[in-house]
Q: What sequence folds into this?
């Protein structure tokens, strides 16, 4: 009996790891990168997912524009509360839903794009031209995100002489490594490098995706933010003169479906489960019928006044008095499923205008400026005005034309660096700590070495 | 009664009755219970016949017409072990046979259920606490685990809250996990049962309690395996302890019935006062002026002062009530040579003190023990439970939560309460402001969970020889949970909508064991058990909503074809396969040794770590059995125990080891909004093939005593539990770009060590009986290693608890509030260096301000009996730890016009020189040094001592013992639960288990963190029980 038992025991415990296949329970969505990213069509789907994330309300879809106005002089502060009030009072801390979402959704786009670039070599049947184009798209997407995010979480380019102030983590591949913050200079260097590469890699037309013109337009914007007017002029000029885009005759066209001819890079709205690329824009500013017809955000008096200086046809089109007697901004259509015009000719013309004037080429600059003014029903201005006055014209036109387009805060800081070191933004020094958003906990908590921003100093 | 005594008494009886051999005889005697009181209704049966008798009210019995000769008698009595006596009956004579059930041998001979078998209490080398059936019925329609509170050392039970059928948090010997589940393994009659606390997600204080579908009335005993020696037989699932539930089975003898009916009344243990309209307006006005404004403070919702004239709604009064409970339970036990059966039927309806919240349970159980042949036994256990829970959202989601927060006293319930010239006035009534109106919520939104649970098992045992037992069991544990919502048009603002979520859980398991008692001669006893075990768990989910089912919940299964919006979810599942052995040895019932080895494989573990080994070793030494031990001395029993072992915790999400992807064309998956100019795909997270169980090493040493012939028994235990490779849910930075930023790694190290002490005394025996049971346990919990994780990566959800190296699990990691500045009334905080500051900066200035772990917990129960009367009362206590009131930042904090405040708000700074608890009332958190976000106001001002003592249960009973043959006994009981609570905490109730949506939050911030969490229930119960 004893003997038998020993045999049973022995045989049971010899049962080992090679016999455990029957234990497998594999979830439906388990896969490997080799399986998932096997064909060029898969790669396209991975990149689609990156654009999809870019189009989120928290990435390019409106939140950045909202914060840019909240933290400066763009909105009326009464009745604002919660996270928005923290932005309004320039007192953001690490626990804000807004900054968490902005960081999360924006970098998901980067991660998804980088994943394709990391694994381009495993995709079978990918032609050289497809590979080049895809790499260009990845570089464009990550340049766009890094440029936008560093402007919220680091002091502006030029705030220190060597731009050694802390920027954000640079992500050029999707991996689980902890990455510390780079200096603002390093982030801009990476953005410029990626865009220069993208310009070489991307074709001039590329379905609805980023093409070489997208990269050039973004690079113009980057150089302009850096007050590098030589480069910003060159790239803006290239896009305007050589690109296939034509300036809309109707200033509202770029917020309509399929009617704009000036969109250089846009994000499409697919209408599947309200998956639209402009969700944030529409929901923040537009009056919500379910909320007693009130909007979530009202423009500040400064903004309303800016449109009153001259009789401006945009005022009647964009501003409406609501049921509660307050004026709200009607710039973004409520029901329309229109693409989100991330980069467009209006902004590129504004860049070329101011860059040209800065470079002493008033004729080109004023020409662009008058194109925009003419469209808004304003009279032409003369190129013979004083340079400083022309620059001010450019800036005031920009403030109006790009209202609620993620322009205001970054532009004011650029101007401060350029020529207004004592600038106050709604009573706070332009470079006070609170005018930079605190990093959210979802960026800090994965890495004990990541440094938060200093807070306060604006009130 | 031990073997020796049994043999002895049989010997004497046999000897003295030997010479008498004539026609028919009879047997009579008295049956006493363990306290020396007559045992009423015990069944005395002549073995292998149906001949027998029941004892009467004085415990006496007589069996007539007994054939002379050697007779084997069996006495069975509910709640006691069967006893056997062999007597000789002589013709024409009456043989007197008295039985004393369990007297002075209960400690040693009590049968304890262990994994895959039973042992006598004296043979245990592991640490097991047993709670009997009579202790599980404190509450009407309750769940069994809440009844364990205070009754066994080292088992910390935090009751869910006063909501009906809510779940408790059960921790055995502290919390040894961070991100993996901390709950013990529950095994019912050998079946590891499913226990998904988060099926329905965080539903506003209404988490699902999988244990509520177990009927406490059917339970015979609950054994809690605490150390590795006892639990290692369950291997990778045993690290949090194992709770073995054994249901009642048939007893030999004529059918005996019990019918019990109980009624009860529920109230909250405490009601916190919030402000009335005048007080609220006063606070608003003061803050308004303090913040530099003039005039009257504007009212919310565009209300004017004229509109609200005379309105003063007591919202709390509108959402609470006296809850009524009742329970009817009928059970039958019987048995003969071939078949024993237990049949139990129970219906209960349990209303909580919250309006529209109740739990109804219909439960049926049939347990059959069939012995077709001498060597074969078949045990069938089958139960069906129907649970129906009507829910009212709580905390942040509504109900009592809203009533004390966003439902302002200046808001009316109905629009016709406004003054008639108000533009808000509406003669026809209609609810005002429905999303802050809990009365409207109850009326316009119906929420119900309906559950069917079938738990069936069959065990076949074959004993080819006296020393070999082969056993196999198969079981099927099936649960169908439907969660239903119906919302009326007024609530949705568009069409009425019906929502249904259906979960089907199929939990199949089987095991086989062989136990062999090795023939080793009379002094040595050696047995060996080997076995194998398999479990296959699968869960499916369907969800649908539809607007065509006006006024009703709808069943997806019935309308599948008609529903357009049917959502499928991935099946979830896991499997376990195990091999195990247990070797038990003792020498002269004096020296004991037991070794256990289990080898587990599970689908949950990564490919590189599929199999785990879990050994344990235990030794015992009953020194009082030694010859040198002074018999008759004060210490009649003394046993030393020591054990070491490794157990695992595999309570981790089942798909964690895999790299997962999202893609459009994934059938059966909901991937809304994934399209972008065609299909999309992306990686959700990376694979972790190294993922495995947490390993817990437990060392346990203890000593058990019996003094004065077991008048006093005591046990003292020290344990040391070290969790290695603790699963930590670490975080990737958002900028890493993965969709899933959290991932699990086996990197943590946690230590729990503690002391448990229990003492039972029989202070008075005889007609007046007084016993006392006391237990206390102190656990010290320390996180030794967290890898690279930052405090914020290891959080406990809302409420600011964190895991920090060198601190216990669940520290309150917040800004330290120091005092209110006497000059300005501003709050003064401490910065990272401990200097006073006005700045509220969580990025740099947070520190450990307290922790959720109690220093010690325990219970004291006294039981008094006099004649037919008995009285028992149980105190439960918990000392140490801190409560963080996460809603205090709004109920006492910066004043905004969208919340109500509690009465404590009046202790605030008003003018220079005031020494106040709360800072100056202002309208903006900026004035308290923080951000513009009023919710970012977490600091130690909202931290409170969590200690409390509670009269957990008090019960008065009376046995009527009628003089009729039909009804053996009628028992009347009057009892109360949570009648008194002694605490310094200013909130609702110091015993807090907050609703959470996943395991880490439950471990790190499940207890002692409150956010408008409903208080516990105070209940009064009247019971009537008939034995017949």
A:
């Amino acid at each position: 009996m004893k003997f038998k038992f020993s045999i049973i025991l022995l045989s049971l415990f010899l049962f080992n790891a090679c016999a455990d296949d029957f234990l497998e329970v594999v979830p439906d969505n388990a896969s490997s990168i080799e399986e998932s990213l096997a064909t060029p069509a898969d790669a396209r789907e991975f990149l689609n997912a990156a654009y999809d994330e870019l189009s989120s309300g928290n990435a390019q879809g409106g939140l950045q524009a909202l914060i840019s106005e909240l933290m400066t002089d763009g909105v009326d502060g009464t009745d604002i509360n919660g996270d928005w009030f923290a932005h309004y009072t320039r007192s953001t801390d690490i626990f804000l839903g807004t900054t968490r979402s902005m960081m999360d959704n924006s970098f998901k786009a980067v991660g998804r794009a980088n994943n394709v670039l990391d694994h381009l070599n495993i995709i079978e049947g990918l032609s050289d031209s497809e590979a080049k184009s895809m790499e260009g798209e990845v570089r464009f997407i990550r340049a766009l995100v890094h440029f936008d995010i560093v402007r919220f979480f680091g002091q502006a380019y030029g705030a220190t002489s060597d731009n050694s102030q802390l920027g954000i983590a640079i992500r050029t591949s999707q991996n689980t490594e902890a990455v510390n913050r780079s200096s603002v200079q390093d982030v801009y260097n990476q953005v410029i490098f990626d865009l220069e590469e993208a310009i070489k890699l991307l074709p001039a037309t590329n379905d609805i995706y980023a093409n070489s013109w997208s990269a050039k337009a973004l690079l113009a914007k980057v150089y302009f933010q850096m007050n590098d007017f030589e480069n910003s002029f060159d790239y803006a000029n290239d896009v305007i003169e050589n690109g296939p885009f034509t300036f809309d005759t109707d200033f509202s066209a770029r917020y309509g479906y399929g009617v704009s001819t000036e969109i250089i890079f846009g994000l499409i709205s697919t209408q599947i489960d309200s998956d639209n690329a402009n969700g944030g824009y529409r929901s923040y500013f537009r009056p919500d019928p379910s909320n007693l017809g009130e909007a979530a955000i009202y423009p500040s008096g400064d903004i309303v006044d800016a449109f009153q200086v001259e009789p401006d046809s945009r005022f009647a089109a964009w501003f409406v008095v609501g049921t509660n007697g307050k004026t709200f901004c009607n710039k973004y259509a409520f029901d329309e499923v229109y693409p989100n015009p991330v980069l467009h000719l209006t902004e590129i013309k504004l860049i070329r205008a101011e860059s040209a004037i800065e470079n002493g080429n008033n004729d080109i600059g004023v020409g662009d400026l008058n194109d925009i003014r003419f469209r808004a029903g304003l009279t032409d201005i003369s190129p013979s005005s004083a340079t400083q006055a022309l620059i001010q014209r450019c800036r005031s036109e920009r403030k109006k034309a790009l209202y609620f387009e993620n322009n205001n805060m970054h532009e004011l800081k650029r101007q401060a660096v350029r020529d207004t070191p004592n600038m106050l933004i709604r009573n706070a020094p332009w470079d006070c700590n609170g005018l930079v958003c605190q990093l959210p906990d979802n960026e800090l908590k994965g890495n004990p070495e990541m440094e938060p921003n200093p807070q306060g100093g604006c009130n | 009664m031990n073997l020796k005594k049994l043999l002895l008494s049989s010997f004497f009886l046999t000897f003295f009755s030997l010479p008498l051999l004539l026609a028919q005889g009879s047997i009579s005697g008295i049956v006493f219970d363990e306290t020396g009181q007559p045992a009423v209704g015990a069944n005395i049966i002549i073995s292998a016949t149906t001949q027998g008798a029941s004892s009467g009210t004085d415990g006496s019995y007589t069996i007539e017409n007994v054939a002379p000769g050697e007779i084997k008698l069996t006495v069975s009595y509910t709640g006691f072990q069967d006893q056997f006596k062999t007597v000789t009956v002589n013709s024409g004579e009456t043989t007197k046979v008295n039985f004393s059930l369990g007297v002075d041998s209960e400690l040693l001979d009590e049968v304890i259920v262990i994994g895959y078998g039973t042992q006598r209490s004296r043979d245990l080398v592991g640490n097991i606490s047993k709670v009997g059936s009579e202790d599980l019925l404190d509450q009407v329609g309750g769940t069994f685990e809440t009844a364990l509170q205070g009754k066994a050392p080292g088992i910390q039970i935090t009751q869910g809250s006063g909501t009906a059928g809510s779940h408790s948090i059960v921790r055995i010997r502290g919390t040894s996990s961070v991100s993996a589940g901390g709950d013990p393994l529950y095994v019912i009659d050998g079946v590891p049962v499913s226990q998904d606390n988060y099926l329905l997600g965080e539903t506003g204080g209404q988490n699902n309690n999988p244990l509520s579908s177990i009927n406490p009335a059917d339970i015979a005993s609950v054994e809690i395996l605490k150390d590795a020696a006892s639990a290692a037989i369950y291997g990778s699932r045993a690290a949090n302890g194992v709770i073995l539930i054994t249901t009642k089975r048939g007893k030999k003898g004529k059918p005996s019935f019990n019918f019990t009916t109980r009624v009860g009344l529920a109230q909250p243990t405490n009601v916190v006062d919030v402000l009335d309209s005048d007080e609220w307006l006063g606070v608003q006005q003061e803050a308004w002026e303090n913040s530099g404004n003039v005039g009257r403070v504007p009212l919310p919702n565009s209300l004017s002062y004229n509109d609200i004239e005379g309105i003063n709604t007591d919202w709390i009064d509108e959402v609470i009530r006296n809850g009524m409970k009742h329970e009817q339970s009928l059970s039958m036990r019987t048995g003969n040579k071939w078949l024993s059966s237990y049949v139990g039927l129970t219906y209960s309806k349990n209303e909580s003190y919250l309006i529209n919240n109740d739990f109804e349970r219909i439960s049926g159980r049939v347990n059959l023990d069939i012995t077709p042949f001498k060597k074969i036994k078949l045990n069938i256990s089958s139960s069906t439970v129907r649970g129906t829970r009507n829910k009212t959202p709580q905390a942040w989601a509504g109900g009592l939560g809203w009533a004390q927060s966003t439902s302002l006293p200046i808001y009316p319930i109905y629009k016709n309460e406004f003054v008639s010239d108000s533009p808000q006035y509406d003669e026809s009534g209609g609810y005002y402001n429905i999303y802050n109106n809990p009365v409207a919520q109850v009326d316009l939104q119906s929420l119900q969970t309906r559950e069917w649970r079938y738990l069936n098992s069959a065990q076949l045992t074959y004993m080819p020889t006296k020393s070999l037992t082969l056993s196999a069991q198969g079981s099927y544990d099936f649960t169908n949970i439907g969660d239903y919502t119906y919302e009326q048009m007024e609530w949705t603002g568009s069409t009425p909508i019906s929502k249904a979520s259906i979960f089907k859980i199929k939990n199949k398991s089987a095991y086989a064991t062989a136990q062999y008692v090795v023939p080793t001669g009379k002094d040595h006893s050696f047995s060996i058990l080997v076995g194998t075990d398999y479990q296959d768990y699968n869960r499916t989910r369907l969800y649908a909503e539809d607007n065509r089912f006006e006024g009703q919940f709808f069943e997806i299964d019935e309308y599948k074809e008609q529903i357009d919006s049917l959502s499928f979810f991935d099946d979830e599942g896991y499997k376990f396969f195990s091999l195990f052995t247990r070797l038990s040895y003792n020498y002269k019932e004096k020296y004991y040794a037991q070794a256990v080895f289990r080898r587990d494989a599970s689908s949950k573990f990564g490919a590189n770590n599929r199999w785990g080994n879990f050994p344990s070793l235990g030794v015992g030494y009953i020194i009082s059995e030694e010859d040198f031990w002074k018999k008759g001395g004060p210490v009649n029993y003394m046993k030393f125990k020591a054990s070491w072992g490794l157990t695992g915790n595999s309570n981790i999400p089942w798909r964690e080891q895999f790299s997962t992807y999202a893609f459009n064309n994934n059938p059966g998956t909901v991937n809304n909004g994934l399209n972008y100019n065609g299909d999309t795909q992306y990686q959700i997270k990376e694979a972790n093939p190294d993922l495995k169980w947490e390993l817990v090493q437990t060392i346990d040493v203890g000593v058990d005593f019996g003094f004065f012939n077991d008048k006093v028994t005591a046990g003292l235990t020290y344990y040391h539990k070290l969790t290695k490779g603790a699963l930590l849910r670490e975080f990737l930075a958002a900028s890493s770009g993965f969709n899933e930023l959290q991932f699990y790694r086996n990197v943590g190290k946690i230590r729990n060590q503690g002391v448990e002490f229990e003492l039972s005394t029989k202070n008075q025996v005889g007609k007046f009986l007084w016993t006392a049971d006391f237990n206390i346990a102190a656990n010290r919990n320390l996180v030794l290693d967290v890898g690279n994780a930052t405090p914020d990566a290891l959080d406990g959800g809302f409420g600011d608890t964190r895991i920090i190296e060198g601190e216990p699990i669940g520290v309150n990691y917040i800004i330290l509030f120091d005092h209110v500045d006497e000059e300005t009334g501003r709050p003064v905080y401490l910065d990272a260096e401990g200097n006073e500051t006005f700045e509220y900066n969580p990025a740099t200035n947070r520190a450990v301000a307290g922790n959720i772990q109690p220093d010690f917990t325990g219970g004291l129960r006294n039981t008094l009996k006099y004649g037919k009367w008995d009285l028992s009362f149980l105190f439960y206590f918990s000392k140490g730890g801190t409560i963080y009131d996460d809603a205090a930042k709004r109920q006492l904090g910066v004043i905004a016009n969208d919340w109500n405040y509690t009465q404590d708000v009046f202790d605030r700074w008003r003018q220079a020189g005031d020494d106040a608890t709360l800072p100056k009332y202002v309208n903006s958190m900026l004035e308290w040094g923080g951000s513009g976000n009023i919710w970012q106001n977490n600091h130690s001002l909202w931290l409170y001592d969590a200690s409390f003592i509670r009269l957990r249960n008090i019960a008065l009973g009376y046995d009527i013992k009628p003089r009729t043959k039909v009804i053996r006994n009628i028992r009347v009981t009057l009892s109360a639960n949570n009648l008194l609570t002694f605490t310094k905490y200013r909130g609702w109730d110091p015993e807090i288990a907050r609703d959470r949506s996943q395991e880490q939050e439950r471990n790190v911030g499940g207890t002692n963190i409150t956010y408008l969490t409903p208080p516990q229930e105070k209940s009064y119960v009247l019971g009537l029980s008939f034995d017949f």
